[in-house]
Amino acid sequence: MFEQHLLPPISRDISGHAIHQHIRALFPILRSITGKGIVETLQYISAQIKNFSTTSVASGDLVFDWTVPKEWNVSSAKLMDKHKNIIIDINDSTLHILQYSLPFNGLVSREDLEEHLFTLPNQPDLIPYKTSYYTENWGFCLSENQKRKLTDTHYYVDIDATLAPGFLTYGEVLIPGESDEEFLFSIHCCHPSLANDNLSSLAIAIELIRKLQDLPERRLSYRFLFLPGTIGSITWLARNSDKTKNIKNGLVLSCLGDNGPFTYKKAREDSASINALMGKLLSRQSNARIWDFEPYGYDERQYCSPGFNLPVGCLMRSPNGTFPEYHTSADNLDFVTPDALETSFSLLADLITITENSLYPVSTSPYGEPQLGKRGLYPLQHEALKTDEIKDDLPDQLGLLWVLNLSDGKNSILDIASRSQRSFRSILYAVDILQKADLLKLYGRKQAQPFPTS
User: Fold this and answer.
1) Cα(362)–Cα(451) distance, rounded to whole angstroms?
2) Is 0.90 surpassed by the pTM of this model?
3) Which terminus of the chain has a smaller tally of CB atoms within 10 A, N or C?
């Protein structure tokens, strides 16, 4: 087995405010699973990163058991009183229109209007996000308090929309590495003005891609998908089934901008490598939660469908449906914070650092503890490290001893970090120090018999 070398950790020097700026730029766009809004969003992503491509699939195309829907676009949508005073207008909030609303123009009675109004009675100040992708209907979403003020006998409805044969469009970027093995990141980008679900993950992904593309060397390949939820991932899988054999780990990213603790939802197979990886990564995160797989939620349920059964989990902060702002107008620019965005980015940067350094150290001096003092490693001088890492990520003397003791070819660098209860980066730096002192060799796989026997 060939010896390997460490790759430097992914830099975490990105401001949460810079991530938040992407969300601000994209927030006003009226997105859906098809149409001009999602195309405009993908164009924004393309302008931020290199080698981004989009694919358009025609309405009516069969994708497994599904059919690509018609394309939906809205030019305007207004509800007006009998004097043509505007009461509801999508220019005030993109949430005001029922997603996939049919066009409608005319005078309707208050009684007939009722079945086309969608509110949240238990959250009377908030506008809900509602869809009608596969059931033809027209309608408006508004706050319960707005609805209570609709006391006239008749109202004018003017919804200028089209629902016609067109295209479903998704975007992706493949960042190649030395290996064809891929780490998949999947992000849904079909919601209108919702900041946490899911502009937060989209914005973080942009910065993560930038970091990966700037690396001089990568072991793994990384594929990022930007898709409309459910139908988008099903369409990608239907058209790219041959590529799934290269996916060795994956994450669906969602709701990463609020201040809740991290939540990881496992891939379908409990033994999937991504589950062990995320479990160890989150063990150092305060109040982090790990949930078992269930076939409900985001696109992990498509990647984990039995025909594919891919090792793809889902990373969130507050999970979908568990916070009061979810799918409402309260999921706004103030709900997502720069601090939360920055911390989420840092966690994913650490994840990539771990996957790029999935190596097994073997001690070159395994019989007894090697003398560190004659190598200038006792006491350990931090001044020699030349790093701007936070204190928690600096190696210490005991960290070096942990690495030396567990470098038996059976423990990965991540295993050592987990066993020693130290950050991965601190153990990575310790490994680097010891390798430079010729006290370690690194291998890409476990070593059955790392030491010579007499």
Assistant:
1) 8
2) yes
3) C
